Amino acid sequence: EAQVTQNPRYLITVTGKKLTVTCSQNMNHEYMSWYRQDPGLGLRQIYYSMNVEVTDKGDVPEGYKVSRKEKRNFPLILESPSPNQTSLYFCASSYDRAEDTGELFFGEGSRLTVL
Amino acid sequence: AQKITQTQPGMFVQEKEAVTLDCTYDTSDPSYGLFWYKQPSSGEMIFLIYQGSYDQQNATEGRYSLNFQKARKSANLVISASQLGDSAMYFCAMRSFTGRRALTFGSGTRLQVQP
């Protein structure tokens, strides 16, 4: 089954304790991206990757890191989480071919609470 | 920069009636795609419908249709014969086919279908 898998789905942590949210896709997609969703703001892009070893900032990258060492994985790293990073996080992927619509396939979301 | 505007924070509709969710967008890109996603209370993002900027005809997918008016930069979602299961948050989004190819989301419309 084609899917984007995120872990953990739910996490409560404390300020300053490093954490990683994993994301893996099995569709051989070139493009991967992280979004955060906050009430009234829709989804905003944090980081994206066009392919292996190619990453770049989205609209709200502060406080986050990513890496793309393998095509299928795109982890999101919070080196020193703060309460304003409490949010619902989505990983998404898509093909990056001219003939595609560019539909993004989303993971199920990871709800993070930073105390 | 791209921008998506959804002016209806919440909508009510009676079961079996049709409803239109508004979406306007702004972009300087000549080529782009427009998407609608549904987010039920369980949180996952479900792709509903896609419209390419060069598509001549409005997109349809079952009970969903996209009323695309390029000159007015609007991409309204029409749901026919509403069902109780349609109660959810709906997001309009746009993706440029150039640059970082981010999917830019509106703030969403919460639809409640009443029996």
Please explain how this structure is put together.
The complex is a heterodimer of chains A (115) and B (115). Chain A has 115 residues and is mostly beta strands. In chain A, strands 2, 4, 5, 6, 9, 10 and 11 form a seven-stranded mixed beta sheet that branches. Chain A has a four-stranded antiparallel beta sheet with strand order 1-3-8-7, with no helix packed on it. Helix content of chain A is 0%, strand content 50%. In chain B, strands 2, 5, 6, 10, 11 and 12 form a six-stranded mixed beta sheet that branches. In chain B, strands 3-9-8-7 form a four-stranded antiparallel beta sheet, with no helix packed on it. In chain B, strands 1-4 form a two-stranded antiparallel ribbon. The N and C termini of chain B lie far apart (41 Å). The A-B interface holds A 31, 33, 35, 40-45, 48, 50, 56, 58-59, 88, 90, 92, 96, 98, 101-106, 108-109, 111 and B 4, 33, 35, 37, 43-45, 47, 50, 52, 91, 93, 95, 97, 100-108.
The biggest beta sheet of chain A reads:
7 strands, mixed
The rounded Rg of chain B comes to 14 Å
Q: Number of helix segments of chain A?
A: 0
Beta content of chain A? over 45%
Q: Which oligomeric state applies?
A: heterodimer
pLDDT < 50 runs, ≥5 residues of chain B:
none
Q: In a few lines, what is going on in this structure?
A:
The complex is a heterodimer of chains A (115) and B (115). By secondary structure, chain A is mainly β.
Question: Could you outline the blueprint of secondary structure elements for this entry?
Answer:
The complex is a heterodimer of chains A (115) and B (115).
Chain A: E1 4-7, E2 10-13, E3 19-25, E4 31-38, E5 42-51, E6 54-57, E7 65-66, E8 76-78, E9 87-94, E10 105-106, E11 110-114
Parallel strand pairs in A: 2-11
Antiparallel strand pairs in A: 1-3, 3-8, 4-5, 4-9, 5-6, 7-8, 9-10, 9-11
Chain B: E1 3-5, E2 10-14, E3 19-21, E4 24-26, E5 32-39, E6 46-52, E7 60-61, E8 64-69, E9 74-79, E10 88-96, E11 103-105, E12 109-114
Parallel strand pairs in B: 2-12
Antiparallel strand pairs in B: 1-4, 3-9, 5-6, 5-10, 7-8, 8-9, 10-11, 10-12
